[in-house]
């Protein structure tokens, strides 16, 4: 019997994680999560879902900076070797599998291809959504009409030397990308922005984590740079703009095509103030970065000497 295991990196997703688990129970045999330091109710909700009987396992990472390739490859190996997967489905918590007639994913997998691809279909706010509806796929019913041309992959398990790329957009063997085979009529409903506050917090957190990783920062955070710099340098363009909070794109660029959500109602997700949540999450993350910096100085004489050298520099300005 073919076993599918999903692997998901997760951070502060308590508004969507319950719906994610309930929906994907129809498509995967086990769910593997790697939490990156959630400070909201994400872990509490996952614990309740585990008690209810959903097949999930949760690990925690203490990495503050960007380390996606290593993390994704670890997830592939853990799903393959520890959980006995035949296929590993890479998903973010805001991505929901959609299949023709809601058929179980396992019935659509071919016998020969080593890597399959699913295109992301982006859903978002168009204005007028029911803020009281906690099931994200029921609340966000409109998707962009234009294709995203962005894919995520499903990889056959236990392939020696396989490396999962950043963003789970591809896999590599001996430094060469493995060409994926598109899975017909199957795609991922993507809900990257559930509110304007959540989007801003994601930009800031993503940019901070990439900067903390050093020299590779710009390459791995290109999609965060422009919105983050607007938030940093011209915050009024966003915070004083009612349109920014009301919608992500207008209906002229979108079609109403709600996902066939398979999870039913929620039991553990509760309403929250997205602005307060975004502020709290960002402060927790920046505090963690600062603490890790201080710990590095305490444990490494070389690092402390280098930072003291930087601090001693003076530059004439005018």
* Structural class label: alpha/beta
Mean pLDDT across all amino acids? 93
Number of distinct beta strands: 13
**Secondary-structure element sequence?**
EHEHEHEEEHEEEEEEHHHHHEHH
Oligomer: single chain
Q: At the third CATH level, what is the topology name of the largest domain?
A: Spore Coat Polysaccharide Biosynthesis Protein SpsA, Chain A
Instruction: Please give the domain count.
Output: 2
Largest sheet: 8 strands, mixed
Helix content: 25-40%
Q: Rg to the nearest angstrom?
A: 21 Å
Task: Quote the beta fraction.
Answer: 15-25%
- Under the CATH scheme, which class of the largest domain? Alpha Beta
**Silhouette:** globular
List keywords for this structure.
single chain; 318 residues; alpha/beta; 8-stranded mixed β-sheet; 3-stranded antiparallel β-sheet; 11 helices
Task: Walk me through the structure.
The protein is α/β, with parallel strands linked by helices. It has two domains: 4-193 and 253-272, Spore Coat Polysaccharide Biosynthesis Protein SpsA, Chain A, CATH 3.90.550; 199-247 and 274-304, no CATH class. It has helices spanning 17-24, 42-52, 68-82, 136-139, 196-212, 217-220, 222-233, 236-239, 242-246, 274-299, 301-312, and strands at residues 4-10, 30-35, 56-60, 87-90, 95-98, 115-122, 142-144, 151-156, 163-164, 171-173, 176-177, 181-190, 254-256. Helix 5 crosses helix 7 and helix 10 crosses helix 11. The longest helix has 26 residues, at 274-299.
